[in-house]
Amino acid sequence: MPPVQLAGALADRRDVPLGDHCPIDRTLQVVGHRTSLLLLREVFYGARRFDALVKRTGMTEAVASQRLRGLVEAGLLTREPYREEGQRTRHEYVLTASGHAFLPVLVALIEWGQAHVPGARGELAISHADCGERVRLEVRCTAGHVVPEDELVVEGRRKL
Amino acid sequence: MPPVQLAGALADRRDVPLGDHCPIDRTLQVVGHRTSLLLLREVFYGARRFDALVKRTGMTEAVASQRLRGLVEAGLLTREPYREEGQRTRHEYVLTASGHAFLPVLVALIEWGQAHVPGARGELAISHADCGERVRLEVRCTAGHVVPEDELVVEGRRKL
User: Fold this and answer.
1) Interface contact flag, A137 B135, Cβ < 8 Å
2) Which pLDDT does position A119 carry in this prediction?
3) B148 close to A (CB below 8 A)
4) Where are the alpha helices (DSSP H) in A46-102?
5) Segment holding B107, helix H or strand E
6) What pLDDT, on a 0 to 100 scale, did the predictor assign at position A66?
7) pLDDT tens digits, residue range B73-88?
8) 0.90 exceeded by the pTM?
9) How many angstroms separate the CA atoms of B101 and B98, rounded?
10) For residue range A4-32, what is the model confidence (pLDDT) as tens digits?
């Protein structure tokens, strides 16, 4: 199977580095740390409070704090104040619309891991609550075709 | 919109860390460096040779070499020998079946970046070669339903 087809600025690119012209790289600059992705996972799994996020991910408070700040700055999480009886005001971390939109990346990582990392198979089952059927990612075009890799055209729209 | 629904070992988990029980984390342990993902991007874009991969990603030879070794060890790339007239034998990097299967992760990163990272919108257009229509990722169940986040059930299948 050949890799994807290229068009536009990517087709006649030679070995020019893409740098910030690549949305993959820009995304990774924002959320490219393993620890950031583990924190996002836990927010999707329902954790909101700093202490819970630290315990569930097993990272240090310093790292968690730095990554959460990055996720807030990048607009994936927002901080909402809460206050327990007799305590000072603290903050919970909540997904923004942009954070919710990140879910397919996590599903893609789960799918790949379960199929291709030794020992990971069968750890998670992802299903549709309404019908119980198994859920997976599909690469589809708006005409409804499932698109295999060798029919995928990636076009660079800006001059490199 | 609530986060995903949990079932099985994930539902009554409290704040137990998942560690290696999570395929996201296992995947990130293998390919979680930004530099690994940029190298994979370039192999999907058709680069095979070390020199081209270094130029296109703008990373040092030392980092590229280390990451490529990791991707080979993790089974996403394989090294194939080639030899140019009068030169010593070198190696090209080629996607394995497991490497090809990683494509949805990159498509997910592109999609999210273009929609949510300032300045990244419109850099790439992904389309279906056969019909020209725009391509995107869909989270679907095997019954054919597009599954929204709040209908997604993630079930932990192993005791934590």
Assistant:
1) no
2) 83
3) no
4) 50-57, 61-73, 97-100
5) helix B103-116
6) 97
7) 999 999 999 999 999 9
8) yes
9) 5
10) 999 999 998 999 999 888 999 999 999 99
Question: Which tokens in the block code for residue B101?
Answer: 């299967």
Among A141, A125, A123, A68, residue whose Cα is nearest residue A99: A68
Partners of residue B41 in chain A, C-beta under 8 Å: 22, 24
**Res B107 pLDDT > 60:** yes
Cα-based distances in Å from B81 to A61, B49, B53, B70, B95: 47, 10, 16, 18, 14
pLDDT tens, residue by residue, B126-149: 999 999 999 999 999 999 999 999
Domain boundaries, chain B: 5-156
For the CA atoms of B146, B147, B148, B150, the dihedral, rounded to the nearest 10 degrees, stands at 160
Token digits for B135?
């391509």
Question: Strand A124-128 to strand B152-156: parallel, antiparallel, or no bridges (unpaired)?
Answer: antiparallel
Give the orientation angle of helix B34-44 with respect to helix B23-31, to 10 degrees: 80
Query: Does B1 have pLDDT greater than 70?
Result: no
Cβ proximity of A72 and A79 under 8 Å: yes
Residue type, A63: V
Give chain B's largest Cα–Cα span: 65
**Could A3 and B46 be called an inter-chain contact, meaning their C-beta atoms sit closer than 8 Å?**
yes
Cβ-defined contact of A125 to B155 (cutoff 8 Å): yes
Exposure b/e, A23-45, CB count within 10 A at least 16 = b = bbbbbbebbbbbbbbbbbbbbbb
- For B6, B99, B115, the CA distances from A24, given in Å and listed in that order, are 29, 17, 12
ipTM of the predicted assembly exceeds 0.90: yes
Strands (E), chain A: 5-8, 77-82, 90-95, 124-128, 135-141, 152-156
Which of the listed CATH numbers 1.10.3430.10, 1.10.10.10, 2.60.40.1230, 3.40.50.450 matches domain B5-156? 1.10.10.10
Interface of B with A in 96-125 (CB under 8 A): 98, 100-117, 119-120, 122-125
| The pLDDT of residue A120 is above 90 | no
